[in-house]
């Protein structure tokens, strides 16, 4: 029998880390993950994969770690002797990176160097393949569309600048030390376990809450921004394929379709039968309930009569606090290289992604509704 491959995932508690861990375990890997110490449990997304440390022959093993701590990372890599490292850990919120730029440079930028250098110092350059979670944010200010592996970068946030360092240090270690180190330039990908403060999840949570009568209004920033949104499940498969390729290269992973934030809002509310009409401009723009599609509302298990009461009300508004000092207006990726050379094919279209997220959030928010009915206070988070 072939020996089990060993993978190390940094950022295993995040959206992508959880899907990737699940994917690799299904492929028969032994998966090691790095999680941070937190004052509350932070393993919600991977709890279904947890294995009791007292059980022999575990396939899923967690280590405490931190991207800003070289000694910690070097020790874990030495212990694990991984065949593959997926470096997914990062402070990944673009807007927050304007508030914590130095930390982001350290964790997202220098953190990548720490991984590469540990592999080199430990003499693992021939054994260990490295995947670096690069991003479409590198393209930033629009230079050309669709964006490909050769489109010039123009980062527009401390996050993107840190990721630019990580991108180039990965290329440099590949060229200097002949390492199998690759960048996956991934465009936005979402899922039911997407962080709650990214725009798609903020929208699907709010649309569900508004439909259930738990929230009155959704406040957003730039509704004109356009993103190429895919499903995280499709994208983690690609991370693995990148490390199975014959040669180490950099790859764009995208859907090739771009959609404005405003239209994502329309689709999410549409799932629960709320048809929106947008009126006004800039900070005065609002999304007003134009009509209720009774069939969709019923299919979603909602109280149609209560939804009818929303007619004519503004349920979406713009709050400038969510504007960014510098914005990325338009992202649309060209995944041709990945499709042709690695045979990658995505399974989810945008509509299916929205439906998947809405179904899940509606289910989660229904629990909140029960709590509210039982007299408990429900928090509304607007970040
Ligand atoms: P998440 O924010 O969901 O997850 C980030 C993970 O990194 C979490 O496990 C987090 O831990 C961990 N982490 C953050 N800072 C540190 C640190 N200093 N030390 C150790 N661990 C840390 O991101 P995603 O899963 O969405 O993204 C994965 C990677 O892919 C990130 O690098 C992101 O920048 C990049 N990316 C994401 C895209 C997307 O659309 N999702 C697109 C392109 C790139 P904790 O749970 O404790 O917070
Ligand atoms: P992004 O994702 O910045 O593309 O980075 P996010 O969902 O935060 O923003 C997408 C676009 O929506 C606009 N927007 C809002 N964004 C948030 N978060 N909250 C709002 O209220 C809001 N209103 C409008 C934003 O201005 C932006 O234009 C994500 C992250 O996963 C990165 O880690 C990853 O590298 C990139 O995707 C590719």
From TrEMBL:
It is an enzyme of class 4 (lyase). It comes from the Bacteria. Residues 8-357 form the NAD(P)-binding domain. CDD domains: GDP_MD_SDR_e (cd05260). It catalyses: GDP-alpha-D-mannose = GDP-4-dehydro-alpha-D-rhamnose + H2O. Its EC number is 4.2.1.47. GO terms for molecular function: GDP-mannose 4,6-dehydratase activity; NADP+ binding. Its cofactor is NADP(+). Keywords: Lyase, NADP. The keyword Hydrolase does not apply. GO terms for biological process: 'de novo' GDP-L-fucose biosynthetic process. InterPro entries: GDP_Man_deHydtase (IPR006368), NAD(P)-bd_dom (IPR016040), NAD(P)-bd_dom_sf (IPR036291). Belongs to the NAD(P)-dependent epimerase/dehydratase family. GDP-mannose 4,6-dehydratase subfamily. Catalyzes the conversion of GDP-D-mannose to GDP-4-dehydro-6-deoxy-D-mannose. This is GDP-mannose 4,6-dehydratase. It comes from Sulfurovum lithotrophicum. The lineage of its organism: Bacteria, Pseudomonadati, Campylobacterota, Epsilonproteobacteria, Campylobacterales.
